[in-house]
Amino acid sequence: MPWLEGVDLECMDCHSDVELFMEKDGKEISVFVDESVLKRSAHEIFDCADCHEGFDGMETPHKEGSLAVDCLSCHEEADPDSHAFHLDFLKKPFAMTASTECLDCHGGHDTEEIDSEEFRFTRQNQMQSCGECHELEMEQFRDSAHGLGILSGMDTAPDCLECHKDPTILKNGDTLKARKAQLEQCKSCHLDEASVSERTRMGAQFIESYGHSVHGKELESGNPDAANCVDCHGSHEMNRLMVESSRVNKFHQAETCAACHEESAVAFNAGIHAQALRQGILDSPGCSDCHGEHNILFHDDPASPVSPHNVSKILCGECHGSVRLSQKYGISSDRFQTFSDSFHGLAVRGGAVEAVNCASCHGYHTILPTSD
In terms of Cα–Cα distance, which of 15, 57, 47 is closest to 34? Predict the structure, then answer.
């Protein structure tokens, strides 16, 4: 129908007035309609009454009861992948905010065509649109590896709807389903998409190794407290290890791991290695330098770097037997060699796991200097 014919002209006789207001819940609300905005919208071909059904223009108010527009009368098959949450919120009492209607996301008279650059949920516009309600999440995401990827035009970077498309409703306090869903969501890109996994320094094998770790096995066996991707990397604020603010950056690892391993983190922070890190010495080990990253194993697993058989040779000896580090920091380079040549060292090299190793004397996390 051509713009502003018939019933629309009657509506605009009043609603073109910028000073037209109605009272609702004790508040004055503008009912002015900007013709220029509506004419550019996705709904420009419709009459007012196509959306505002049952309205009598000769009566005030025009309709008894709710004046809300029922968008689902036309959009009855709204894409569930892009409406995984808010569509259900209209029907249920547990919405995060009092207003999660269609117009809160898509606008009213200014609704854009889905293929328009101005559409609120293009990849480039989602951050700002979702951020109108989810402000903190938007700020975190904007500076994350994913957000920066989108802003730079990286087509493999996930946007809001890419991750938030499969609702996992928590019932009876059971979080296991949600935590496994988070893991699968991350794997769907970082493991299953070659173009994404190749961006990781060590490739798909590095991502896949989580499944063989103590965390991965515990989660798979049904422990909802086992750490998944989000626990370590964060969600909206996820960033690369070398970014200073990253939760897995060496300077923040103890804080991140402390969420589960509080006692160990407190002990580590009292030791010489943490003291060196606080001084900005990057050669000092953090949690992942000793325990590994994705493939963290039980401490008594023979393949673990902190197992009794490996802790001296593979772990401590890597730094304390290094001529480069010894010269750089003025520490004795013969400490590890003298241990290796000792009775204890020979026993360890021979495979005796009960023999004394570095940690037996120096401790594990609270390792102190000899001057202490």
Answer: 15
Residue 1's pLDDT band (boundaries 50, 70, 90)? very low
* Lowest-pLDDT range of 63-72, 122-131, 209-218, 320-329: 63-72
Residues 6 or more apart from 42 whose CB is under 8 A from it? 111, 112, 113, 114, 116
Sole residue written with tokens 């999660």: 100
Residue 353's alpha-carbon distances to 284, 298, 321, 361, 366, in angstroms, are 26, 15, 21, 15, 22
DSSP state of 24: E
How far is C-alpha 127 from the chain's CA centre?
14
Decide if 180 contacts 219 (C-beta within 8 A). Answer: yes
How far is Cα 56 from Cα 49, in angstroms, rounded to an integer? Answer: 9
- 271-294 pLDDT tens trace: 999 999 999 999 999 999 999 999
CA distance 114 to 79: 12
8 A C-beta contact, residue 189 and residue 154? no
How far CA 28 is from CA of 61, 82, 89, 156, 346, in Å, comes to: 14, 34, 27, 46, 86
Phi, psi of 136 (to 5 degrees): -60, -45
Is the distance from CB of 159 to CB of 120 less than 8 angstroms?
Answer: no
Out of 28-32, 84-88, 345-349, the most confident range is: 28-32
CB of 182 closer than 8 Å to CB of 210: no
Other CB atoms within a 10 A radius of the CB of residue 283 amount to: 13
Residues 6+ apart with CB under 8 A from 68: 101
- The single-letter DSSP state of residue 269 is H
**Residue 240: φ, ψ to 5°:** -65, 155
Angle, vertex CA 81, rays to CA 78 and CA 85, nearest 5: 80
The answer, yes or no, to whether residue 6 has pLDDT greater than 50, is no
